Amino acid sequence: MKKNFISPFSLPVYFFALTILIGAIILHHPISLKGNSISWLDALFTATSATCVTGLIVVDTGSFFSPFGQGVILTLIQLGGLGIMTYTSLVFYLWRKKISITDRIAVGQSLLHDPSFHLGKFLTQMIQFVFFIELGGALLLYLLDPIKFSPFSAIFHSISAFCNAGFSLFSSSLIEWQSSFLVNLIFIILIVSGGLGFAVILEIYERKIHVRTKQKLSWHSKIVLETTLALIVGGTILIFIAEFFAHPEYIDLKKSILTSFFQSITCRTAGFNTVEIDKMTNLSLLIMIFLMFIGGSPGSCAGGIKTTTFRTFVSFGWSNLIGRKQCVIGKYALDDKSLNKALTLIIFAMSLIFLATAILLATEGGDIPHHLTKGLFLEILFEVVSAFGTVGLSVGLTPNLSVIGKMVIIALMFIGRLGPILFLTLLQSWQSQERFKWPENTLLIG
């Protein structure tokens, strides 16, 4: 039993939980606050949101926390974005120049879902790239607006963007730079880089940039890039249409395209916003819920069911429609194990969202008639999916949640960051396999 509770699959869960707990204790201390006081629950909520790189907040980060507290939040974001196990294994690598098989498997499963990679080289390249792009983003933000983006503010927002956290020192997020193409572009590059997955980024660099003879990208990287591009373009068009037809009389075409493009990218995991979310149309919110549910790509700072899972689900449905026996994606058919894992993940995610939404509907106005709470269902569903996808966007419901409501959101952020598939794998490691088969039969479906 001890072996099951202390396994490569459970270590990331324990490390994240410990980091959140330590972060909550520090954030609750007066040194982290600007003469205010914060409850233990709100401190835990903030620490979870930062470590799980979500961005949902119950108090304003810039005005409520002291520079020290903001530094603690930034540290939690960086640790959560790259993964506690990644940092731990890097320390072992630099210290001993070798890594135990347990650490190798743990990081492989949590980061790349592949235990056979060269961990030392991978981690070194990853850390170098992360610090390079974060420092580069901070420098560009500082040069564009050295007053608002002071050195600390520039670093804070650059790390928050790359780690897809969505935390901002500005109470209105990035609405002030709604029309600034360059500021939007910097954040977009940081967000997309953090949401693609470290393996894909390093592969692009090694095969397309670093070597003289260009090599083809792997099947995985092609699927990730194609699906990401399709979601960005499709999301931009749909959000633009939803907002354009809602306000055609005074809309600025260039600004609308830019804001639609930015929201299409940020709502899949980052949590920054250049428009007031609660003033968007219901159609836009529904589109964003769909994008938040999908999230980013495997091995990245993003949450959600991931782009590869979504692509698998679409291909599975299409294959069944045309009568194809295999689930084909690109030039290859997906193996049954991966297909079953993807479908199980979707079922688990939808069940989790349904359960959390039901609980919040009961705790946040369950005793109030429907005609007095119109719109609450969409707001709660938006909040739940945002937490599960570690996005951080909100229509303003978060600070007003009840104690139970905040605890539900905390649990969703924790599960969403580590990934439902990790929890399923952990549960499976505790299960015993049946050594027999049940008799099969047919059932009328539909």
From TrEMBL:
Instruction: Give TM regions.
Output: 12-31, 37-59, 71-95, 122-143, 155-175, 181-202, 223-245, 282-305, 342-363, 375-397, 403-427
InterPro entries linked to this entry: Cat_transpt
A GO cellular component term found in this entry reads: plasma membrane
Q: Offer an example of a GO molecular function term for this protein.
A: monoatomic cation transmembrane transporter activity
Task: Tell whether Cytoplasm is among the UniProt keywords.
Answer: no
Keyword annotations for this protein, in alphabetical order, are: Cell membrane, Ion transport, Membrane, Transmembrane, Transmembrane helix, Transport
Q: Main location per UniProt?
A: membrane
Q: Does the keyword Nucleotide-binding apply?
A: no
Tree of life domain: Bacteria
Membrane-protein topology? Multi-pass membrane protein
GO biological process assignments: metal ion transport
Subcellular location per UniProt equals:
Cell membrane
Full protein name: Trk system potassium uptake protein TrkH
List the source organism.
Desulfonauticus submarinus
